[in-house]
Design a protein that fits this description.
Elements lengths: L1 H22 L23 E3 L6 E3 L1 E5 L6 H4 L2 H12 L4 E4 L4 H11 L2 H4 L3 E6 L4 H15 L4 E6 L5 H14 L2 E7 L6 H10 L4 E5 L11 H8 L2 E5 L6 H6 L16 H10 L6 E4 L4 H9 L8 H12 L2
Parallel strand pairs: 3-4, 3-10, 4-5, 5-6, 6-7, 7-8, 8-9, 9-10
Antiparallel strand pairs: 1-2
């Protein structure tokens, strides 16, 4: 019964997104005109392949960074509700960063709940200096999250990368990491990441990308596609500054041409319209905002002409 209710609610929201985009057009929808593709109902988020394995990943995920994981103040319930929303739409990807042990202990307990434990594609990161410190970080996260194997282990911000990378490769060989990769969240690290991508056969790269921070599409994303690397995207909302940039501005009517109903979806749809992107990670503690982000994965995506128009528009703000 619960599944039927969830599906009915999901279908209704997808319909409303498509119809809303059509009605935003000055002419509305003429009688007999075909419905938007967004109205053709889907059961779950679309997926894209991880090139090295052929495994499918849903195209919208959750980035549980320190900026959104305010467990000492709010507890784990807000995060639990966001992850439940993600699962309701068929999402799976939950990206984590190492935080103080007390926070990760509570977060780990949540991740071990029966409703979450076996359904998530869970990542972790090494973000410290020194080989032993990196090993200790891995062991602590395994203990606190109650799992030996992570779906993806990443070296965060390429920190002490040359020291950590041999251990990361060993963890993949031992079965403690299904996939391995490297993250950056600032344009200043793109050149170094590009060099490493050309040197090492990474399974994943994890980069900052949005209509404002679009530099990754010049070299990194084409290289990832050529080298057979899956791509996770961080900073789709530029740590919140995206909403300050667009605040008080009306969404253009032409956004309805690609079934976009909000400024959050404007950024997510831009990102997903790049075929090199595997999954975009959105950060929020509000399940309704998570749902809004997820719905950007349904319906049409902007074409190249629309992408240029989107970039040009946000540069005027």
């Amino acid at each position: 019964m619960a599944n039927n209710v969830g599906r009915s609610r999901r279908d209704f929201l997808i319909q409303m997104m498509g119809l809303g985009a059509l009605l935003a057009h000055p002419m509305g929808r003429l009688l007999g005109e075909p419905l938007s593709p967004a109205v053709r109902l889907q059961d779950a988020l679309p997926t894209r392949l991880i090139p090295v394995s052929g495994e499918e990943l849903p195209i919208v995920g959750f980035g549980s960074t320190a900026s959104v994981l305010d467990i000492p103040t709010a507890g784990t319930e807000p995060i639990s509700n966001v992850v439940r929303m993600l699962l309701e739409y068929g999402g799976r990807v939950v990206d984590t960063s190492t935080r103080p042990e007390a926070i990760d202990q509570e977060f780990g307990r949540m991740l071990q709940l029966p409703e979450f434990r076996d359904d998530l594609f869970l990542t972790m990161k090494i973000n410290t200096d020194g080989e032993q410190s990196g090993i200790d970080q891995m062991r602590q996260t395994q203990r606190l999250f109650g799992r030996r194997t992570f779906d993806l282990v990443q070296v965060e911000s390429m920190r002490d990368l040359e020291i950590h990378w041999p251990n990361v490769r060993d963890w993949k060989a031992s079965g403690e990491a299904r996939y391995i990769g490297v993250t950056v969240s600032a344009n200043r690290n793109h050149d170094r990441l590009e060099a490493f991508m050309r040197k090492e056969p990474l399974d994943f790269v994890h980069v900052n990308y949005s209509p404002v921070e679009a530099e990754a599409e010049e070299r990194l994303l084409p290289l990832a596609r050529d080298r057979g690397m899956a791509v996770l995207i961080n900073r789709p909302f530029m740590n919140g500054s995206w909403f300050q940039r667009v605040g008080g501005r009306q969404l253009p009517e032409w956004a309805g041409e690609f079934d976009c109903g909000s400024w959050a979806q404007f950024s997510v749809k831009y990102i997903l319209s790049n075929p090199a992107v595997t999954c975009v990670l959105t950060e929020t503690t509000n399940p309704e905002h998570m749902e809004e982000n997820i719905l950007a994965g349904f319906g049409r995506l902007p074409d190249e002409a629309s992408r240029r128009r989107m970039r040009e528009l946000v540069r005027t703000f």
